[in-house]
């Protein structure tokens, strides 16, 4: 089994920023552990991001434990390869005990701990931390396999650049962060883009003299616990706001893209061959995204007024374009569309976790990462505890909370063992006296 032991007090599964953050906190507590990564450190950043990808949050929010961003552009937005370097440098900084190329194929309870079946043998653990996010399997709409085979179809996780796609027009399905940014990437390259718009909200990039993220941080939005949010746990199902850090950061305005020639449609509902059926909800979806955008602006306005902050006045967003006679059917061949990019997210796959710790939707039941199974933890999920949980800004706090709980559990276990030993010694003494 190479240099791996067959037993550890703690096994962390996943070698991305979440697993490494947990490792840093466990090391701070002096807790022996190993991090198992089935691929390589920061694998998804290396392999599931397009060439022009960059963060949508400013670099100053990169705050892995004891390793904040130290570059010269705190208000810039790291590119894909810079993000990978940041995570790899963090792993070296903490000397993380990562074992790459070791996949966990089954996790089950065993005695008072857990047994991990891996690609190189079994490993026992007293506690386990699942730091594998919730984005496991690329998801496309169920009718994708009914579309004409002449249409090139790829998922956003496989998209790299416009030249990757064959000549012709391109349909991007989905308007979350990835969908809008990929649509922009193609649009800027001069490709003719069609975009099926969903219900994702949007956020201003800059407002009243600062990045909106700076204002939202001042307002405590990234520290708001899930149980204090108006939607409670329901917020975990919300799509992220779309905006971009590209070229120093800017809004993504789909209406402006439409003025520039991008074709916008409502939500994609069904399809067969080269014929697609679309919803009539484009206007509603655009209006709702703008409502969220201006709602964020109003929140910042109130904060500025309440605290008497000197800040330039910026008008709220006013639509620059509105749809008329939006089609509810689209013929791919007649429209010259040769490719579809599915930016429809991922689904979770916990099938290898043989523990009764999931709800009816397959989501791990937990409180701040402490699951319903004693000794089992999750880290790195969106809104695990706060809005910052799925981001570099909040992952360290979640990792610290989980590591503290593991330490307390370990101390309690040692205390129980000590008390049990004392009782056994007392009983032996009593028997000797008789």
Automatic annotation (TrEMBL):
<protein>
    <submittedName>
        <fullName>Flavoprotein involved in K+ transport</fullName>
    </submittedName>
</protein>
<dbReference type="InterPro" id="IPR024000">
    <property type="entry name" value="CHP04046_FMN-dependent"/>
</dbReference>
<dbReference type="Pfam" id="PF13738">
    <property type="entry name" value="Pyr_redox_3"/>
</dbReference>
<dbReference type="InterPro" id="IPR036188">
    <property type="entry name" value="FAD/NAD-bd_sf"/>
</dbReference>
<keyword id="KW-0560">Oxidoreductase</keyword>
<dbReference type="InterPro" id="IPR050982">
    <property type="entry name" value="Auxin_biosynth/cation_transpt"/>
</dbReference>
């Amino acid at each position: 089994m190479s240099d791996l032991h067959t037993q550890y007090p703690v096994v962390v599964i996943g070698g991305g920023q979440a697993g490494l953050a947990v490792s840093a906190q466990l090391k701070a507590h002096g807790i022996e552990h190993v991090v198992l990564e089935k691929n390589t450190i920061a694998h998804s950043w290396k392999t599931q991001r397009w060439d022009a990808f960059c963060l949508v949050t400013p670099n100053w929010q990169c705050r892995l434990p004891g390793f904040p961003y130290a570059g010269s552009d705190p208000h810039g937005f790291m590119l894909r390869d810079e993000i990978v370097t940041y995570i790899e440098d963090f792993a070296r900084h903490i000397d993380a005990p990562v074992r790459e190329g070791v996949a966990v194929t089954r996790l089950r309870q065993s005695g008072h701990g857990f047994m991990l079946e891996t690609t190189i043998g079994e490993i026992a653990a007293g506690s386990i931390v699942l730091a594998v996010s919730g984005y496991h399997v690329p998801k496309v709409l169920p009718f994708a396999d009914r579309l004409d085979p002449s249409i090139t179809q790829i998922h956003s996780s496989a998209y790299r650049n416009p030249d990757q796609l064959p000549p012709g027009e391109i349909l991007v399905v989905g308007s979350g962060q990835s969908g809008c940014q990929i649509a922009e990437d193609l649009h800027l390259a001069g490709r003719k883009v069609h975009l099926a718009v969903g219900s994702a909200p949007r956020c201003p990039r800059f407002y009243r003299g600062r990045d909106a993220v700076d204002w939202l941080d001042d307002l405590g939005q990234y520290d708001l616990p899930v149980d204090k949010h108006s939607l409670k746990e329901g917020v975990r199902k919300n799509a992220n706001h779309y905006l971009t850090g590209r070229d120093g950061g800017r809004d993504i305005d789909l209406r402006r893209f439409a003025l520039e020639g991008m074709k916008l449609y409502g939500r994609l509902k069904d399809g067969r061959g080269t014929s697609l059926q679309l919803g009539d909800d484009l206007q509603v979806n655009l209006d709702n995204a703008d409502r969220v955008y201006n709602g964020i602006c109003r929140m910042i306005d109130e904060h500025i007024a309440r605290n008497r902050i000197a800040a330039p006045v910026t008008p709220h967003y006013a639509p620059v374009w509105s749809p008329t006679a939006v089609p509810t059917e689209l013929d791919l061949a007649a429209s010259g569309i040769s490719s579809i990019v599915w930016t429809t997210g991922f689904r979770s796959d916990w099938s290898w976790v043989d523990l009764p710790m999931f709800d009816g939707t397959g989501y791990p039941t937990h409180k701040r990462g402490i699951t319903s199974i004693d000794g089992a933890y999750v880290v790195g999920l969106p809104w695990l505890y706060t809005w910052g949980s799925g981001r570099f800004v909040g992952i360290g706090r979640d990792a610290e909370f989980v590591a503290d709980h593991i330490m307390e559990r370990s101390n309690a276990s040692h205390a129980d063992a000590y008390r049990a030993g004392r009782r056994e010694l007392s009983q032996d003494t009593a028997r000797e006296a008789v």
